[in-house]
Specification:
The chain has 494 residues and is an all-alpha fold. The N terminus and C terminus are likely disordered. Strands 1-2 form a two-stranded antiparallel sheet. It has 3 domains: 188 residues, Growth Hormone, Chain: A; 51 residues; 215 residues, Up-down Bundle (Growth Hormone, Chain: A), CATH 1.20.1250. The chain is built from 16 helices and 2 strands.
């Protein structure tokens, strides 16, 4: 049954037209929702990791310089980061099933258009379109799972969903490299189309319900525009460095983020409740740790993919086989780390993972053109183990730091930190390329500058990750107090 909730007017409280979800779902309905979530959870990370391995081939066909290559990945992340929170809120108001279905449709259509692209500009524009579809999928997928499965079953199905995500990350470099080598890079995007069609058909055929938990609530369009403009200005500023307009845009983006935070604290129905961050130390620092971790690690695959194929002369297929080492180890360790964090304080396990990741990044600082593959593989294994130890416990800390009715907000915030971190990681790589190499195609005569760029990037990533270890350690203990409030925060947000 649908139950009306009383409006309190206090930030973070459920308004009067928000409703608790109907939890009377049979086994068949649950199974269908899980299958749909698995397919959607696989398709988006697979696409991103497969495209990364194909970038050198794509770059040669369209004669892209290093910065344009960065924008192929960054445009996708940027549009996803800008749209994730707004579409999550739109889904709560107008229906999660609708937004999820439209996201699958947009992502699949964009994948089809990618196979027809004829220029760098067209390629990047369609990646923006594809990123919007990805945000609609990620902004609603976990929320639908949480709505359908009760707390006693939720951890298990979320673990299955995360495994599908890691499977996409793991198979992306391997299959993407194979497909690029034998069938051409366009084949990567063809794979998304049948998966998208099957997922959409299951949604239309089997999902008879929708989830409108905040039907009637006003959407915060102004806040969404401010947020989007601030993020875009910051990212474009990174790519424009070292020109003065780059610094101006970054400064404008930071000011925009501050304005967004100020505005969101003063509207009755914010698109992103800032006070969840200001009144809960565990929640805030756990999200900050996630942001730092993704900022320090996401661009590693992008940079190593270029290194393997440019300076070391590997084919896309062989580069994919080498790079698959990291996500495979990550997929193996993450479930174990998640269970471990149920017995040991999550911040301890997550901090240990962050420290191990810092060590792996430090090892990459010494990469050269003649670095043996066994050394690079060890670095990838260490990074995979570190990130595997960090990810599940940190997510556990985030979800345990808030009251049950804020699980959707917490999940959305965690996703936003992931995307922002990935985006900033690519932004750092773009900035270093812009300063060290400039707008030129990476050819043999520029290999020394390219290797120097890798050194600067991995030094900066190592320092970032070390800072993240301290942020992770000082977050405080996670767990309910005698009042049922998170122990890490002085009081829960009501």
């Amino acid at each position: 049954m649908v139950k009306e909730m009383k409006k309190t007017g206090v930030p973070g409280e459920v308004p009067e037209f928000c409703r608790t979800a109907d939890t009377s779902y049979n086994t068949a309905e649950k199974r269908v929702v899980l299958i749909i979530a698995i397919l959607a959870g696989f398709i988006t990370p697979f696409d991103g990791s497969a495209v990364n391995i194909a970038l050198p081939t794509i770059g040669k066909e369209f004669h892209m310089d290093a910065i344009a290559l960065s924008w192929v990945a960054t445009a996708y992340l940027l549009s996803s980061a800008v749209c994730l929170v707004p579409f999550g809120k739109i889904a709560d108001i107008y229906g999660r099933k609708k937004v999820f279905l439209y996201g699958i449709a947009i992502f699949s259509l964009a994948s089809l258009l990618m196979t027809m692209t004829t220029s760098t500009e067209m390629f990047i524009r369609i990646r923006v379109f594809q990123g919007i579809g990805s945000a609609m999928i990620f902004g609603t997928g976990v929320a639908i799972l949480t709505s359908v499965f009760p707390p006693g079953e939720r951890g298990k199905v979320l673990g299955i969903y995360i495994t599908a995500v890691y499977l996409g990350l793991s198979l992306g470099p391997f299959l993407g490299g194979m497909m690029t080598h034998y069938l051409g890079w366009r084949s990567i995007f063809f794979v998304n189309i049948p998966i998208g069609i099957i997922t959409a058909a299951l949604i239309l055929w089997k999902l008879k319900r929708d989830w409108l938990e905040c039907e009637g609530e006003k959407f915060d369009l102004t806040g969404s525009i401010i947020y989007g403009a601030a993020v875009i200005a910051t990212m474009y500023g990174f790519s424009a460095l070292p020109e003065i307009k780059g610094a101006i845009l970054i400064a404008a983006g930071i000011v925009g983020i501050l304005i967004f935070a100020f505005y969101e604290m003063r509207v009755p129905f914010p698109v992103l409740d800032i006070r969840l961050l200001t009144k809960n130390r565990v929640f805030a620092l756990s999200n900050l740790s996630a942001l730092i971790n993704y900022s320090a690690t996401f661009a590693v695959t992008f940079l190593l993919s270029l290194d393997l194929q440019y300076t070391k002369g590997f084919t896309s297929q062989d580069a994919g086989i080498i790079l698959v080492a990291q996500p495979v180890v990550q997929a193996i360790i993450s479930p174990v780390a998640g269970k471990l964090s149920d017995r040991i304080e999550p911040r301890i396990v997550a901090s240990a993972g962050m420290a191990l990741t810092s060590f792996g990044l430090f090892l990459l600082v010494f990469l050269k053109e003649a670095t043996p593959i066994w050394y690079l593989t060890i670095c990838l294994l260490v990074l995979g183990a570190g990130f595997g130890l960090f990810s599940s416990p940190n997510t556990n800390a985030i979800m345990s730091a808030v009251d049950k009715r804020f699980y959707g907000v917490a999940s959305g915030m965690n996703g936003t930190m992931r995307l922002l971190g990935q985006m900033f990681s690519m932004g750092i790589a773009m900035m270093i390329f812009a300063v060290v190499i400039g707008p030129v195609e990476i050819t043999t005569e520029y290999y020394p500058q390219f290797i120097s760029s890798l050194h600067y990037a991995f030094i900066l990533f190592t320092v970032l990750c070390i800072i993240g270890v301290f942020a992770s350690l000082v977050r405080g203990k996670t767990g309910p107090t005698q009042h049922g409030m998170p122990e890490g925060g002085k009081k829960s947000v009501r």
